[in-house]
Design brief:
The chain has helices at residues 44-56, 81-98, 112-118, 123-140; strands at residues 36-41, 63-67, 102-108, 145-153, 162-166. It folds into two domains: 1-31, no CATH class; 36-166, Beta-carbonic Anhydrase, Chain A. By secondary structure, the protein is an alpha/beta fold. It has a five-stranded mixed beta sheet, with helices on both faces. Bound molecules: zinc ion (ZN). Zinc ion (ZN) binds next to helix 3.
């Protein structure tokens, strides 16, 4: 579009918002589906921390299923029959079509979904749900590797950032 103005980002010409021509970003399309799927809560305060955690684990690219409460929506103990049915079908479709080999389940501290559904966010309940979902996934997908982590913000006087702790899963 003649006269359209592109606002450069990070000093790269052509990268950034352009009112008439679409917005271009640096990330290059990879035609290969990642082997890893991450399932996490939609809470945007944790999404970048999860991305950084996965990168620190050398997980280079992943599919993402972000739902309020994350794995809770796949658990009959913590979500409606309808939610479990719809999201389980969606996840199974994703994993089958992308040949997912490895799933990372991530829950987080003080999750608003658990507070709303149960009146409080109880870490042990969230970890039980992660174990239930891990077990169910393994039953449906032979050979699938499943891990679970619990994320908590670290206090500023302890360096800040987030801590991701492994949640032990049976039969790991
Ligand atoms: Zn949450």
């Amino acid at each position: 579009m003649p006269g359209a103005r592109c606002l450069p980002a990070a000093g790269i010409p052509g990268i950034g918002y352009d009112a008439g021509m679409g917005t271009r970003v640096r990330y290059r399309f990879d035609p290969h589906h990642p082997e890893v799927a991450a399932i996490c809560c939609s809470d945007g305060r944790y999404i970048r921390a999860l991305e950084e955690y996965l990168a620190a684990r050398n997980i280079d690219g992943h599919d993402l299923m972000a739902l309020p409460g994350g794995a809770a929506q796949l658990c009959r103990e913590s979500a409606s029959y309808t939610s479990v049915s719809v999201y389980t079908d969606a996840l199974d479709f994703l994993m089958r079509s992308h040949h997912t080999a490895h799933v990372v389940l991530a829950a987080h501290a003080d999750c608003g979904y658990y507070r709303s559904y149960f009146g409080r966010a109880d870490r042990s309940r969230q970890e039980d749900d992660l174990r239930r979902v891990a077990s169910s996934l393994r039953d449906r997908m032979r050979g699938l590797r499943v891990e679970a982590v619990f994320a908590s913000p670290a206090p500023d006087d302890q360096g800040g950032g987030f801590v991701f702790e492994d949640v032990p899963l049976e039969g790991r």
